[in-house]
Structure formats: structure tokens, C-alpha cells
Amino acid sequence: MSEHLAYKPQSAFMQWMERRLPIAGLVYSSFFVYPTPRNLNYWWTFGGILSFMLGVQIITGVVLAMHYTPHVDLAFNSVESIMRDVDYGWLLRYLHANGASFFFVAVYAHIIRGMYYGSYKEPREVLWILGVILFLLMIVTGFMGYVLPWGQMSFWAATVITNLFSALPAVGNPIVTWLWGGYAVGNPTLNRFYSLHYLLPFVIAGVVVLHVWALHMVGQNNPAGVEPKTSKDTVAFTPYATVKDAFFLAVFCLFYAWFVFYIPNYLGHSDNYIMANPGQTPTHIVPEWYYLPFYAILRAIPSKLLGVCALLASIVLLAFLPWLDTSRVRSANYRPLFRQFLIVWFLVVIGLGYLGSQEPVGGYVIAARICTAYYFIFLLVILPLLGLFEKTRPLPNSISEAVLREGLPAGASAPPPAGARG
Amino acid sequence: MNNTRGIVLAFALAVSLSALGARAALAQEQEVPPKQHWSFAGPFGVYDPAQLQRGFQIYKEVCSNCHSIKLLAFRNLADPGGPGFTEAQAATIAAGYQITDGPNDQGEMFQRPGKLADHFPPPFPNDQAARAALGGKLPPDMSVLAKARSVERGFPWFIFDAFTQYQEDGPDYIHAILNGYVDAPPAGATLPPGGQYNTYFPGHAIGMPKPLSDGQVKYTDGTPMTVDQYGRDVAAFLMWAAEPTLDARKRLGFQVFIYLIVLAGLLYFTKRSVWYDVKHHPELLEPRPPSEYSRG
């Protein structure tokens, strides 16, 4: 970083502070002058959106926790009391419940971006692995949160998912009993899920700090997939990235508000408005939409143990992408074959999501098996081989060249005379 | 390129064919409830207080004989965005109910008239008493019933619903159930003892006998006294009972939308202005401290 970009505290207090705790300098170098590639598109705004959603979830969640009662006999009615008797309680709850969904919308967009532009490749492996850890933590946190309203789907989702551990040979059943704190999903289960649901978001926040730290160590990837070489390849984080992030965050919030205010129960399941009843199994048990692809993978495998392994592998394998993908070219824009296989993979995951919501009968099972097979074949066979055989398109020499290759927008002119700039 | 496209197409075809086959196999006798017109549908929907009052009358005279509505308090009847009773009217309604309170200083439970703060007392002291009185059947509590019932929409309708804001499948279903009783079950339909045939109930065998018939509840405002109208009124009342803050939610939603649209617009033009040099004169760009970015 050039000398004139260093933080120079103006006031006497900030000078005094900077010699003791250089936090203002850290913020300045990380969020003001931090160089960001100038060719980033809107897919790069989801990191900021994710931080925003984590904040929304923690703030609404802390207030909801003030009114919620984690007890099997009281939980359902305490949530209803939030909806009816707490001032703007309905807003808090709908923000939080739909916030979980939009948190996942943002994280899936973020993952799609990372995979399409090869953001996991050298030197960003640790950044990527921290991201997969964050995704896993989100899955666990979201699942435990879904159990708290103690409706029928809460209870039965908890039963089905914790029962997955029983597939493990020998240790399976003791583990399940240990998880439940008893011989069935009950009050101890609800209590520990509540405790962990409150704890894990702060663990997520901690890993986010590591994630951002790693990001600032290696810098952002970009659509061209070539590293910035000169200062002409980058722009300052503030104002360029901040204003772009802010604009797209507002657009994202429009979608979020559409669900919160107009269709707040669209993404939920009506059975969760029936109080949990261990004596009555719902006609079909489905998880929240953001787990459906993984649920489909679980059910596609006939053996329970192998199904659980496949479910786990489907997420953990993502952490190995930096090594499964043998190509040195990052961006799919320069990898025609990879681009097609990857887009099909994304469509297959969406297809698995639909199949996960349907009853596992007849053709649905066959379709889910074909999709599951492609999910793993892409990761384990196609990706390693593509790097060896694919003929990639020539890479631009620099980001600036990539931008110029696309052409300047209409109306761009020769540089104005020196000094015309404000 | 053409090769991969062919593989992709064949693959997509295989998956969708097997899925379509399953879809056809699953398309059973589940009848789709006809959609009704609801005053509270859409972005500007609000409850119709007169309809909620009629629905409450039906609940009070008919449903409440078997169904509890435990989460609803008498004070709610006078809440804004509700049936529009005055507080005095709600207090009078409350006083018409006997509430079990106590224990008193003698250690005994006692009965007293209801107050605004009380919740509607259930018709049976517990589930077992309800089952004992109703031939083993337990009528569900009605507090959130309208949100606890839904209609399987299927692909692609569930996607359209997100845009058309169709959230009224619960009330549609309740209205359909009340109008779904037929005198003679179709040939081949088998009913368990005590079961009634209902066109819209999943599996058709419903435990509840036909609760409403034309003219049974006397309206005083000239509204037609038909089962069709009763069904709509009580379904609207149950929707309000399940979602009493709907009016406030949609009103605030519109304000939030105006705010966000203006904010997004302003940020868009700010972004365009800030990025102008990068887009048009990229050769001028050099890193500089943020304080120097102000354009005057």
C-alpha cells in the first residue's frame, strides 16, 4: 500500500488512540482504501449482504429470545404470544423466519459466484474452506432454529434428522440418546437446541472475522480470474464497492420485504402451525426449502448409512474443491466445457431441491438417483479430468485489458484535459 | 460444444421424464378447493369488520360447541384491524362466558363472568373429555387453524403464488370443507363408522358431521344466510384469529416498499455517478485517499 494511502489521524484524540489501539487504521485500510478489482459484478455484493443478514438475524433473534419460552408445553404458545401480544412481535418473528431463508438465498448466490469464477483456487483455499465451515454452521443453526417453535414439522424434523446418527454402526443409538438427552425428542432436546441456536450465530460471527481476514490477506477474485497487477486494475473499497454493495443490498431487501410483509408463510409449512404431537406423524415430513437438495440426496441412496454418508459428503466435498479442480484457469468465462458442466450441476441441485420436496416414489426416486449421481460425478470425476483435457480460452493479461476487451460503454471519450477532474 | 449440448439435453429429458411419470402417478383424488374472493387478499387487503362479526357469530353459535379457540382473548374483539367491536361490546360478550378462576382463599376453584383480559374458555375441560363426549374424535383448536391448513399447489403453481401473493389457501380450504359435504357418498367410497363423506377433506372421511345448513344462523344485516356465505364468513373470522395483525403488516409493508424503492433509486444514481470515471475514463484512475473522491 502506497504511503499516501496510510491512515493519518486528524484529531488529537484519534492520534492518542491510534498509538494504543490502531482500530481506526484497521477499519481505514480494510474498508476504505482496500483495493478491490474494478471489474467486479453484482455477484460480488453477496458477501456484504450476508454480513447484513447475520446482523438482522442476531438482532431480531436476541429480542425474540426475550419473549420465547423453551419448554415443550409452552414454546408453541409463546411464539403465538409473540405474534399477538408483543409490540411488532409479528414483524420480529417474520423478519427472523424469512431472514433465515434469505440468509440462505444470499449464501447460495455467494457459493455459485465462488464456483463459477473459481474463487476457491490458489491462493484462496483457506478462505474457501472457512466459507464451507460457515455454510455448515449455518445449516446446523438454521435446523435448530426451525425446531424452536415446536410445531409438528419442528418436532418431526428434529426426530428425523437426529435419527440419522442411528445409522452409524454400534455407536449410533447411544449417540442419538445422547443428542436427545433422553429416549425420545423431548424437553431436554428443545432446551439444548435453544441454547445452541443462541450460541452458534456468535461462532458464525467469529468465523466470519477469520473469513474476512483471509479475504484481505489474498484479495478478492474477479470475473476475469486474473490477479490485479497494477493500481489501474483496482478501485478503492470506499466509495466504489460500498456504494455498489449498498445499492444491491437495497434491491435484496425489496425481495426480503416482499416475503416478510406480503407472503410471510409462503416458505414455511402449514403443519408447523399445529403444536408438536409425538403421537401423530405428519403425512410427509419435509425440511425447510434450503435443505431440500441434501434431503433428496439422503433419500436417493437405498441404504440409510450410505445415505447419511452421501449427505455429509455432498457438503464436505465442497471444501476439497481447490484440489478436485485441477485447472489453473479460474473463471468459467474462459473455460467453455467447465462452464456447461457447472451450469448443469447448478440446475441438477435445483432439481434435487424439487425432488426433495416430493414423496420418494416411482419416477421421483429414479430422477433423484440420476441427479445425485451427477452431483458426485461432477465433483469427483469431471472436475479433475476437465483440468487435464479442457482447451481453455486465452486469458487477458490484466483486469484492465479484460475491461477494455469488453469495450468501453457508449459515450466514453478521450481523457479530458488535465485538471478537469474535481 | 454440440456434443455436450446433446448430452445435457438427453440428461434433462431423462430426469424430467422420470419426474413427470411420478407426478402422474401421484395425481390422486385430492380435490382442489375453489378460490374465493377475500377482502384481505393482495398487497392492500384488509379484513372486513362486518364479515368478521358475522364469522364470530357463527363461531359462537356453532363451532364453539366443540372447537376451542384458546389463543384468542375477549380484548382482541376490540383490537384495531379486527371485528371492530367497541370495548364495551367486547366486555359484554366476555361477561356472557363463565370462566374458571382460582383457587380462592378457601383453596377452591370458582366460576366468574369473563373479563376483557380472559381468553375464550374451551368447550371441554381437556382433550379426554372432548373425546369422551364426541365418540373418540378430537376437534382441533381453531386459534391458528386457518394457517395450519393448506392446499398442495404443485409445480408450477407454487412459483406463481410467490408473485400473485396467494396466501389464502387456508381460508379457501375451510370454506370448501364446510361446503364439501354430500348427501350420498359416491359409489365405491368406504367410510369408517361415524365418518362423513366430504369432497375436499384429504381421504374424504371427515369426523365432523355437517355443521351448517342454510338459514341456521340468523344474520341481521341482510347478508344471504347460505352455507356458502357462512363458510366464507367463518373462514375470514378464523383467518383473523390466526393472523390478527394482517392489516398492520400489509400497511407497514407498503410504507417499507416505498422507502426501499426510493432508497434503491437514490443509491443507483449515486453508484452511477461514483463509477462514472471508472467506466468512462479508466486510464485516469489512480488510487487516492477517499477524502479526494468528492466531486465538489
Quick summary:
Chain A has 422 residues and is an all-alpha fold.
Provide an overview of this structure.
The complex is a heterodimer of chains A (422) and B (296). Chain A is an all-alpha fold. Chain A folds into 2 domains: 252 residues, Cytochrome Bc1 Complex, Chain C (Up-down Bundle); 108 residues, Helix Hairpins (Orthogonal Bundle), CATH 1.10.287. Chain A is built from 16 helices and 2 strands. Chain A has a two-stranded antiparallel sheet with strand order 1-2. In chain A, helix 3 packs antiparallel against helix 5. Chain A is globular and about 65 Å long. Chain A starts with 11 loop residues before the first helix and ends in a 16-residue tail after the last helix. The C terminus of chain A is likely disordered. Chain B has 296 residues and is mainly α. Among the domains of chain B are: 167 residues, Cytochrome Bc1 Complex, Chain D, domain 2 (Orthogonal Bundle); 39 residues. Chain B has a two-stranded antiparallel ribbon with strand order 1-2. In chain B, a hairpin with a 7-residue loop joins strand 3 and strand 4. The longest helix of chain B has 35 residues. The chains are: A mainly alpha (422), B mainly alpha (296). At the A-B interface, helix 4, helix 5, strand 2, helix 10 and helix 14 of A face helix 1 and helix 9 of B.
Count of helices of chain A?
Answer: 16
CATH architecture of the largest domain in chain A: Up-down Bundle
Task: Give Rg of chain A in angstroms.
Answer: 24 Å
The CATH architecture of the domain at 31-72 and 120-244 in chain B is: Orthogonal Bundle
Give a quick account of the main beta sheet of chain A: strands, pairing sense, barrel closure.
2 strands, antiparallel
Q: Considering the protein shown, what is the CATH homologous superfamily of the largest domain in chain A?
A: Cytochrome Bc1 Complex, Chain C
* Helix/strand/pairing category of chain B: mainly alpha
Distance between the termini of chain B: 52 Å
Arithmetic mean pLDDT of chain A: 93
- Please give the share of residues in helix of chain B: 40-55%
* Estimated radius of gyration of chain B: 28 Å
